[in-house]
Specification:
Blueprint: E1 3-7, H1 14-25, E2 28-31, H2 32-39, H3 60-63, H4 67-81, E3 87-90, H5 94-97, E4 104-110, H6 113-124, H7 128-150, E5 162-165, H8 171-182, H9 191-212, E6 222-226, E7 229-236, H10 238-241, H11 244-252, E8 259-266
């Protein structure tokens, strides 16, 4: 299984490029909107609209309460939708919710601002100056929210494998350049990278199970998967600590899990009291 993630910001040409890539490669097209809809299934910010970076977002204050859970839900949703084979994903957050591995190519498109402004003008019926202001507000909102959720900037070139300027190349040429990259030895999966990817998908299914369970849906847990062996760790409040066996039970019920170990600790009521370690199967 392989994948391509494309990031271009609002009103870029990433959608056209993603569609052309899926036509040429025969891969599935995963859109950010579908991912956001899937996130609602995991009981995190249920009222999120079709884009998490819309300017008017009354749900944002609710989401701020736990960015970590939202990141987890995004990853779980992507894993759910990526089960069927190789994919092309178009959306702002793709490069952050897919781990860095050789068979996943992370693309950032630099789109001329004039093109984006013209698309805003035509789509929203705004004058040129108002379209520029709207787009500037949108970019600031995206930057702020993305950093709040992921802790990095979405326009940081170091987060990507390849940066392409669409003022230089047409969509067709860009698509064929990307396909050429996917065929290079550096992008070909190895036995180890395939296992890493399968572990990533299993981790997503585990996170989905934890998020949809009534007893574990609000817990911020760390899940590590290696060759279908799962280790879960984290700190729980006293009222949550009784569910430590339930956490393991939920994970063990996920298809593909071979064994579960845990290191779940109790948060102390006082900073001077050390946390209680627990290293066992339960």
């Amino acid at each position: 299984m392989s994948g391509i993630t494309i990031t271009d910001g609002a009103f870029g040409c990433g959608d056209m490029l993603a569609r052309r890539l899926t036509d040429l490669l025969g891969w599935r097209y995963l859109r950010e909107e579908a991912l956001i809809e899937s996130v609602q299934h995991y009981r995190v910010a249920r009222a999120i609209p079709t884009g998490m970076f819309e300017l008017r977002a009354p749900w944002w204050n609710r989401l701020v309460e736990n960015h970590a859970l939202y990141r987890i839900a995004l990853q779980a949703a992507l894993c759910d939708t990526a089960q069927g084979g190789s994919f092309v994903y178009h959306g702002v957050a793709g490069q952050e919710i897919v781990p860095q591995m050789r068979q996943i190519l992370r693309i950032f498109l630099v789109v001329p601002n004039e093109h984006r402004v013209e698309q805003v003008r035509l789509t929203k019926g705004l004058s040129g100056e108002r379209a520029k202001r709207w787009l500037a507000d949108m970019d600031r909102t995206t930057d702020r929210r993305f950093k709040a959720i992921f802790g990095v900037g979405w326009r940081d070139p170091s987060r990507y494998d390849c940066v392409l300027n669409t003022s230089k190349f047409s969509v067709e040429t860009t698509a064929r350049l990307i396909i050429n990259l996917t065929q290079q030895i550096e992008c070909q999966p190895t036995r180890q990278s395939e296992q890493t990817f399968h572990d990533f998908l299993l981790e997503g299914r585990i996170r989905a199970a934890l998020l949809t369970s009534d007893n574990t849906c609000r817990m911020d847990l760390k899940v590590d998967v290696h060759n279908r062996l799962v280790h879960v760790s984290g700190f729980l409040f006293p009222l949550e600590y009784d569910f430590k066996k339930e956490i393991v039970r939920v994970i063990e019920a996920v298809p593909g899990v071979n064994k579960v170990t845990s290191d779940i600790r109790l948060l102390p009521n006082d900073d001077s009291v050390p946390a209680i370690p627990e290293n066992s199967l339960y």
